[in-house]
Amino acid sequence: MPQIVQLPLIFASQLFWLVVVFGIIYFVIAKGMVPKIQSVVEDRDRKIADDLAAAQKAREQAETSEGVYRERIEAGRSEALKVAQEAKTKAALDTEKKLKAVDEKVGTRIAEAQARIRAAADQARLELEPVAAEAASELVTKLTGQKVSAKDAEPAVKAVLHG
């Protein structure tokens, strides 16, 4: 094979050009591309660090806002409970006043009704006395055969009825 025979003759020149080409490629990559890649990576790392710092700051602000929000909610809840308790107390007092007024009206009506009942009972007793005296005189007449007038029987009936 003729290529193998020529190998020692062209080996040195191929090796030279190989080193030259790789050297050029190395310098182009090392001096041109690597700094750009490193700056992009550094910018990216810096951006990530800034974003993480901003996220941490936002988190702290959110926690602070949440604390303030919770305090406001608790204050509002306390105020609502206080207002509800005051309303309950006021309603209880109003109800108590209304119940007293109604109780007084009912008590007055009961007293009036009792007075009317007593008057009616007294009137009934007054009307009952002559009827009872007459019935007593008739009973005495039927039982004993003696005739007793209703006027004579009235004192006995009054004594029994009035105790």
Describe this structure in words.
The protein is mainly alpha-helical. Helix content is 96%, strand content 0%. It is built from 2 helices and no strands. The chain has helices at residues 2-144, 150-162.
Please tell me the overall pLDDT.
Answer: 89
Q: Bin the strand percentage.
A: under 5%
Contiguous low-pLDDT stretches (5 residues minimum) are: none
How far do the termini sit from each other? 165 Å
SS class: mainly alpha
The count of β-strands is 0
Estimate percent helicity.
over 70%
SSE order: HH
> How is the main sheet built?
none
Inertia-based shape: rod-shaped
- Our Rg estimate from Cα atoms comes to 62 Å
How many helices does DSSP assign?
2
Layout: helices, strands, pairs:
Layout: H1 2-144, H2 150-162
Family: Belongs to the ATPase B chain family.
Membrane topology: Single-pass membrane protein
Protein name: ATP synthase subunit b
